[in-house]
Write a structure and sequence with these properties.
This protein is of the alpha+beta class. It is built from six helices and eleven strands.
């Protein structure tokens, strides 16, 4: 497994630490943190900074109703039990995993309830060589994509932000070579065409806060059918 070369940018990691990312984008970052100790350090630093800022705020008394609500939520969380690595995947003492070409990340396992990418119910799209599974995170657009070996995605840019985490295989585009564990952190200024490696399918997790912008009349025609 090659070393992780591409990471979310610092602004994205700070937004994640502050809880400001849309849920779909946060899911991608959280899965990346399972593999990347370097980004875990950045997120922990952002959380520590936020905690320091909180300490400087003047305290404000809770109303009796608000206090009762907070205590009730705490009681519910305790009764339901705590998992070893929560969604943020950034607690100290919870060691990151090496990217595994067969295993589904723990965070995704909650949505998919499968232990292997090949066991998932992949849905074919109109685009040749492209399959997907749409995930419902309640905020943002997030989906698993499977690009057949050697196939190209349509050329596209972005109306908003896109985070793509490579989970198996890899792809290349004008930004470089992306392998398992790498993240492409893209905005509206980027136009690219990922091409999957020729030796195996590329499986990635993509989160977006706005639809893609495809180039060409055919790609734009099929965009509503693909749903991206």
């Amino acid at each position: 497994m090659s070393r992780i070369e591409h990471h979310p940018n610092e602004e994205t990691l700070l937004s994640y630490a502050a809880g400001a990312l849309p849920a779909g984008l946060a899911l991608v970052v959280g899965c990346h943190l399972q593999y990347c100790p370097e980004c875990r350090v950045s997120v922990n630093a952002g959380e520590a900074l936020g905690a320091d800022l909180m300490v400087t705020l003047a305290p404000k008394a809770l109303s009796a109703r608000a206090r009762a609500s907070v205590l009730e939520q705490l009681d519910n969380n305790i009764s339901e039990g705590m998992i070893a690595c929560p969604v943020a995947v950034q607690q100290q003492g919870c060691e990151p995993d090496a990217p595994n070409p067969e295993a589904i990340p723990r965070l995704l396992h909650r949505f998919l309830q499968q232990d292997s990418f090949d066991a998932l119910p992949w849905k074919k799209t109109i685009a040749p060589g492209l399959k997907q599974i749409v995930l419902n995170c309640g905020e943002g657009d997030v989906r698993l994509l499977r690009i057949a070996a050697g196939k190209r995605m349509p050329v596209h840019s972005h109306h908003g932000s896109e985070l793509t985490l490579i989970l198996r295989g890899g792809y290349s585009d004008n930004l470089g070579k992306f392998n398992a564990g790498d993240v492409a952190d893209l905005d509206a200024s980027v136009e690219h065409q990922p091409v999957a490696d020729s030796d195996e399918d590329c499986i990635c997790l993509a989160g977006m806060d706005a639809p893609l912008a495809f180039r060409g009349w055919l790609a734009r025609l099929i965009q509503p059918l693909v749903g991206m």
